[in-house]
What does this fold into?
Amino acid sequence: MVISLENVTKIFGKTRVIDDISVKFPTGNIAVVVGDHGAGKTTLLRLLAGELKPDSGKVVAKTGALKGISCENNDFFPKLKTADLCTMWMLLYRNFDIKCFRSMLSEGGIAENSRFLHLSDAQKNWFSASLLIASNADIMIFDEPLKYLDSEMKSRFIELLDQMAEKEKTIVVSSEEITDFEKSDVFVAALYKGSLVLSGEKETLLASHRLMPGASTISPDFKVIGPVLNERLVETTDEVGRSATLKEIVQGYVNGSSS
It folds into this structure.
């Protein structure tokens, strides 16, 4: 474990945007923070990055670990050229990989002398993510990095994240959809209205949940999580009903929390 939240709460006005969350983010795979718009994903990432301070609880990070965050459409210094922004990051991160950065710019169709202001939404996200990947930070935090990307670029970006995870980096990514990550070795943290309703590694979650027909009798030995369309998600390792996808497992927990 390189970074974790311990009973963290964040309040804006009278709203608990993050409500008593405890979760440990592992190294070696991608941690996906998933939830609907307004679930608290961005606030959680900003707490991890240190941009926000919790009202209670604490964020614990490994001593000396370098952190970086890539925000959705981050219009930082919009009049600067991409090369100037690269220079700034090279000053912040001693192991910045300029070859990796230039390669990613090329893949994204971004010229090194482009002004950030003139990039498309997809290019802004790709550029911001390129800076963070090239930084070689120990903890890489990405807020909605797949937004605006086409399917080919999404696949390529996830491939790059997998490569970073293999280097024992801690990768935390927010998304409204888990589907894009179902082929990767992921850790899932699902939020609903500021609460953590599910956390765990993909293989463990897939092996410990099944979907049962809605009208069927369910053994009291099985824990009913919540409805998924006309079925019910249950927690069990028995081979009953049918297998659930990662998306269906997340839906079951969110639906169960909302009912």
Notes: Helices lie at 41-49, 82-92, 98-107, 121-135, 151-166, 202-207, 246-258. The CA atoms of residues 12 and 18 lie 9 Å apart.
